[in-house]
Amino acid sequence: MKSVLLLVVPFMVALLFVPQKEHNTCRSYFGYFNTFFSSDCYYNPDIDDDILGIIQRHVGVHETHEVQTEDGYLLTLFRIPRQNPKGVIFFQHSLATDARTWISQYNESVAFLFWRAGYDVWLGNTRGNHFCKKHVSLDPTEATFWNFTFHEIGYYDNHASIKYVKEHTGGSKIIYVGYSLGATSGTVYASIRDKDAADSVKLMVLMTPTSHSQFNCTSFLKYPFFIFYNLQGIVNFTDPLFVVNRQDAWYVKIVRFLATHFSCKKCVLYFLHLFFGSSKYDIEPDLINMFIRVHGSEYPLKITYHYYQVYAVDGKFRRYHYGEERNLLLYGDKEPTPYPLENIKVPVYIMHGENDNLDCPDAAEKLYNMLPKNTTIYGKLMVEGYNHLDFSHGRHRNEKVYSKILQLLDKINLND
Ligand SMILES: *[C@@H]1O[C@H](CO)[C@@H](O)[C@H](O)[C@H]1NC(C)=O
Ligand SMILES: *[C@@H]1O[C@H](CO)[C@@H](O)[C@H](O)[C@H]1NC(C)=O
Ligand SMILES: *[C@@H]1O[C@H](CO)[C@@H](O)[C@H](O)[C@H]1NC(C)=O
Ligand SMILES: *[C@@H]1O[C@H](CO)[C@@H](O)[C@H](O)[C@H]1NC(C)=O
Ligand SMILES: *[C@@H]1O[C@H](CO)[C@@H](O)[C@H](O)[C@H]1NC(C)=O
Questions:
Q1: Where is the Partial AB-hydrolase lipase domain (predicted)?
Q2: What is the pLDDT of residues 343-375, one digit of tens each?
Q3: Under 8 Å CB-to-CB from 109, ≥6 apart: which residues?
């Protein structure tokens, strides 16, 4: 009996970590247990390629731009250019990832969909991510480089990027599509740079905006947000400028190795459900390795602390809470300044998921109701059965989300 176990157990363990190099993509979750022999598995060059290689293979044209923010960060923008476009569209990514979000669905990627539909497509990157490690005077090894939250991303990065895109495309207003962190920072930008946003943006699409959530919207695991986002913070819990996802850290390497090579991809999915909500339209098996790959961008813990403050206090969407003394110095008040949503002038369209545990339907509703009435002319959409992650990699995302945006854009006159 013992010897049988001695043989079987290592075999079972080995099976859980089948090398997945030659056949890195499977059409079924079961296929990942046997990538060599399963007819469901094949080699997908996108998984090993960089962003420009991927755009080159599927579309054939791309440009790379660099823009400087008012506070000295140098951001990389990617463009899939189009002559005489129907409109100019700018995508801003979510947390722990970067512009690759929009090209990580192979030939049916979000960016390609809009490009094929006739749009000039720009992909934003925020400070500190995989493509943005430059600053005029600071170095990413200095803590001060990482001293930011969604506030600075909204106030500086979105401002500089949108201004640049508008100026480089003939000066017409552009369309902004922000997902999760990109939607939160979009809301920051639209509220405190309200005139600028109204002059530059024709429509702001906020997908899962995550700005008024509270713990009670995470239904079955009460504090998943806190636990998940602070796992690495436990290493140095006191330091908000701690860099999460640092690619050279040993524990990040281990987690990434496990996530990439673990054969039970469904287990990865169920793990994600705990934090982002269950889903009727889970990430397609083909896309799971790509999903893992593009979620490796660095960010400071301060961003999740800021979200945590929104969650833990009372769902108030306001600036970073430093403690009464420093608040008084920075904001002139013991309490952090709320974002003036009532100032928003740019038309907003909110999309959120029915099963989202991070930005629960109540929270999205609350944001919507706080917007001035004339900015909500295009309404909102709750996507049936979707969780937080499905917006980028869930099944039927093109029908359920992106074709809806295209239809909306067709209704709006984009040429003024
Ligand atoms: C993408 O590739 C798949 C498989 O080759 C094909 O079935 C599908 O039609 C392609 N989609 C587009 C938009 O080209
Ligand atoms: C981070 O920014 C805050 C607010 O501007 C400032 O008070 C603090 O000193 C900064 N910390 C570092 C390490 O740069
Ligand atoms: C944790 O962060 C604090 C504040 O920045 C710093 O003083 C301390 O040295 C850090 N501890 C470790 C173990 O890195
Ligand atoms: C919405 O209404 C307010 C108050 O009447 C006005 O100041 C603002 O310019 C309007 N915004 C738009 C986008 O029409
Ligand atoms: C959370 O619960 C509190 C108290 O029960 C309630 O006042 C608040 O509206 C709830 N928030 C959300 C977003 O559901």
A1: 62-105
A2: 999 999 999 999 998 888 888 999 999 999 999
A3: 54, 58, 102, 103
